[in-house]
Amino acid sequence: MSETADKIPAPPVPPVPPEQIKAIPVRHYGRWVAGALVIAVLVLIGTAFSNAKINYSIIPQYLTDGTILSGAWHTLYISVLAMALGLVLGVVIAVMRMSSNPVTSTVAWFYVWFFRGTPVLVQLLLWYNISLVFPVLNLGFYKNEMNQVMTPFLTALLGLGLNEAAYMSEIVRAGIQSVDLGQTEASHALGMTQGKTLRRVILPQAMRVIVPPTGNEFINMLKTSSLAYAVQFNELIKRATDISSTSLAVVEMYFVASIWYLILTTVFSIVQYYVERRYARGSSRSLPPTPLQRLRKNLRLFGSFRRPEVAR
């Protein structure tokens, strides 16, 4: 009996469970300090503006004032026209700069160098006083005093549009150079001319690169158009200043103008977002959902959680 008992194996010892790990999160004291400093600065700024001698109650009523609305319309109008002029001329200058002709490429390079190197305000003032150089405009079929020709509108259009063309030419040139050279060679092998290749093959593919910075340039144009105030063009800042000169509400009118600029830039930022998605559809990357798509998805999820169960 003792030998049989010795041959019986001992019951296995249950394994000892490992000691539970207690994770201690890392304390980021710097984040708390930075957050407290930011909140303190915001409180100080808010306190300063609340105690300032500003009549905030008149700001809403001037937002829809006829003079302010006229200024906002002129701001939008001159921005669209100047951007269109800059885009068309920018394509021409970009093609000239990429040309193998040394004369056209040099002229295009000089154009970009000059207009990007001088302030927009200086260019506007030069166009406004161009009559000192050319007192009379004589085109053969049309002759008139330059002071009569260079109205504030035309001055603002030329000053803003020609300056924008220098920047748009570089954007278009970068977009054209992003298209593989084999596309041009294949088009020429099919008998397409240089101009047709540019219109039908190169530019449509380059739009994916051209559109995002072009949208940024237009939004910047909305704000740069305020410099046309210096040449007496009736844009938003000019209209706001006219009201402030009679009502003495200077800072209040600047707030009104700032709100309208924010409205315009926000609207066109949304338009830019969807235009970029339109031209990015052919890319290999999957597009993220739009804010409206995310909102609909969240509403469906919220509805599924709130839906009552059907009684069986």
TrEMBL record:
<dbReference type="InterPro" id="IPR043429">
    <property type="entry name" value="ArtM/GltK/GlnP/TcyL/YhdX-like"/>
</dbReference>
<protein>
    <submittedName>
        <fullName>ABC transporter permease</fullName>
    </submittedName>
</protein>
<dbReference type="InterPro" id="IPR010065">
    <property type="entry name" value="AA_ABC_transptr_permease_3TM"/>
</dbReference>
<feature type="transmembrane region" description="Helical">
    <location>
        <begin position="32"/>
        <end position="52"/>
    </location>
</feature>
<keyword id="KW-0813">Transport</keyword>
<keyword id="KW-0029">Amino-acid transport</keyword>
<feature type="transmembrane region" description="Helical">
    <location>
        <begin position="72"/>
        <end position="96"/>
    </location>
</feature>
<keyword id="KW-1003">Cell membrane</keyword>
<keyword id="KW-0812">Transmembrane</keyword>
<dbReference type="GO" id="GO:0006865">
    <property type="term" value="P:amino acid transport"/>
</dbReference>
<dbReference type="InterPro" id="IPR000515">
    <property type="entry name" value="MetI-like"/>
</dbReference>
<feature type="transmembrane region" description="Helical">
    <location>
        <begin position="254"/>
        <end position="275"/>
    </location>
</feature>
<keyword id="KW-1133">Transmembrane helix</keyword>
<comment type="similarity">
    <text>Belongs to the binding-protein-dependent transport system permease family.</text>
</comment>
<dbReference type="InterPro" id="IPR035906">
    <property type="entry name" value="MetI-like_sf"/>
</dbReference>
<dbReference type="GO" id="GO:0043190">
    <property type="term" value="C:ATP-binding cassette (ABC) transporter complex"/>
</dbReference>
<keyword id="KW-0472">Membrane</keyword>
<feature type="domain" description="ABC transmembrane type-1">
    <location>
        <begin position="72"/>
        <end position="272"/>
    </location>
</feature>
<dbReference type="Pfam" id="PF00528">
    <property type="entry name" value="BPD_transp_1"/>
</dbReference>
<dbReference type="GO" id="GO:0022857">
    <property type="term" value="F:transmembrane transporter activity"/>
</dbReference>
